[in-house]
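User: I would dearly like some help making sense of a protein record. I have put the entry right below:
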Amino acid sequence: MRRQSKNLSSAIGKRVPMKQIAAVTLMLYFGAAGVYAQPGNVNITLSGTAARGTISLQGTPVSEYQLAGQGALGQFTLRVVSTSAASPQTSTTCSGPTKVYLPTVAGAGVFRSQSGGLLKLNLTGGGDCIDFAAGEALCTRIFQVIGGTSRFTNASGTVTLTMTVVPVLADGPNNPVFFAVTGKLTGMVSGAVAGQESQDGQP
């Protein structure tokens, strides 16, 4: 009887750790799965400034945008450089006697999270609809997400930056040089890792 009891206790003792291992394995599996952010829409309000940059693309000085905002990806800054075509083109979405449309031909962007992770953006399209009567421009930049660092290493997707740009300083009657910018970043980003804000580089 004692031997049977001992064998039974031994058998139970062997089964309990197996159950615990199975439970821990499931917890780790679902925990790891939860680390990866599900693909979803990005809809972030941002603001900042714009001015002529110090570099050139295709022989033309770039426009540089310094923006900041907060949304699903946390607090961030966004720096964009881009250059537009030298001559106006026709556009069905930007027409009228006081409007000029300039398509964007080259550029890139870097999204930096508060803790230092970088999300890299490659410009694939866009343009500027300049309304001289309203004294502002509606600027669109379309980007392909091409990964980054830290939690953005495997990120992918497409995002669109839509901005209203208003001059605040001019160097002469028809030469604005510094602008206020408000806008939105919309689209989809997948593959970013959630829950690692404290590991991106800076607290």
In short: Residues 1-35 form one domain. The radius of gyration is 26 Å.
